[in-house]
Amino acid sequence: MLRLLATGAVLGGGWWWSHPNVYEEVGGEFRARPDAIVPVYVDMIPMPQDQPVSIIDATAQVEIFGEAQTAVLLCRNAEIGIVYENVEHHCTSGLRGAHSEHWDQVVLRITPEAPDTVVVVDGVKLTYSTGMQRGTQLTGSAGVIVFPPDQP
């Protein structure tokens, strides 16, 4: 019986250690239809202010119909929702070891490489540590970005 309790404690502690839940689950929806083939910047989530978080890795969860590139950025004082202008002077794409006290938002940049491209966003997969926990969580917003056809 003692062996069973010890095994349960080890498994429960391992699960707790690898499953932080600082961020909300994927929620909220957005739609964007820019008039030109320009990069689109979408605020995925604010960084928590009540506890320190170190971002280890971030991957956009997207499905691309056409041609586009995506990047996850950490931004300070960008205060964006969805914008079609460059906000990268507020941002960095170097995520390793980025602490939450240095960043306000996790932002997804979608750069189309062809007209008529559609990008379906299902959030951002963040690997991070906070306190004694380290793990991966799917968070952010879900939505669709439709880029226009080729302009004559």
Helicity level, as a percent range?
10-25%
Order of helices and strands: HEEEEEEEEEEE
Total count of domains:
1
Structural class, from helix and strand content? mainly beta
- Which geometry do the CA atoms define? globular
Percent range for β-strand residues: over 45%
Q: Mean pLDDT, rounded to whole units?
A: 83
Radius of gyration: 18 Å
Number of strands: 11
Largest sheet: 6 strands, mixed
Residue windows where pLDDT falls under 50 for at least 5 positions: 8-17
Q: In angstroms, what separates the terminal alpha carbons? A: 76 Å
Total helical segments: 1
Description:
This protein is mainly beta and 152 residues long. It contains one helix and eleven strands. It has one domain (2-146). It has one helix at 2-18, and strands at residues 29-32, 40-46, 54-65, 68-75, 82-83, 91-92, 98-99, 105-112, 118-130, 133-139, 142-146. The longest helix is centred in the N-terminal third of the chain and has 17 residues, at 2-18. Residues 8-17 have low confidence and may be disordered.
Comma- or semicolon-separated keywords:
mainly beta, 152 residues
Short description:
It is built from one helix and eleven strands; from the N terminus they run αβββββββββββ. The protein is mainly beta and 152 residues long.
Write the layout of secondary structure elements.
Elements: H1 2-18, E1 29-32, E2 40-46, E3 54-65, E4 68-75, E5 82-83, E6 91-92, E7 98-99, E8 105-112, E9 118-130, E10 133-139, E11 142-146
Parallel strand pairs: 1-11
Antiparallel strand pairs: 2-5, 2-8, 3-7, 3-9, 4-6, 4-8, 9-10, 9-11
